[in-house]
Amino acid sequence: MAKFTDRLGRDWTIDVLVMHLPILRKEFGVDLKEKDWPLKLSRLVESSDEEFVRLLGVLCDEQVKANKLTPDDFVAGFNVQTLIDAGAALEDAFTDFSLRSSQARQAVKEKTVILRERLDRRTAEMVNLEADRVMEATLNNLDSTLKNSAGNSPESLELTPTV
Fold this sequence. Notes:
The protein is mainly alpha-helical. Helix content is 70%, strand content 5%.
């Protein structure tokens, strides 16, 4: 069983169960009987944060219900760090479920390295986008402040070049 903690301090256990297999096939297109399931899982995780969290919600559904939470309550616990931690836990949970031989174990380990790299790239992209957004907002705020303060004091006249 793999675990992660959300931003609200709630601990979640991801345990892929036989009862999840039809849901994984039907709703997410991930069939653990197929050789390319790690790639399909990786694509699902990369496709959108919403789909990724929805998958986690399915795998953690019993815990959500036991804690008398709604799906929205579950989603509220996710930030970038939670997505990173949940991605690693998801990888471990699927690996644990699918391992039946040493060959399978090795193949899965190799595929999960790729998954982890993709998750890391996706996380870096998300962090960079957020940093860009914050920087742009800060610069716009500074620009607005400077425009509003220009000409309002005698000192600002000294800074204005004459032509």
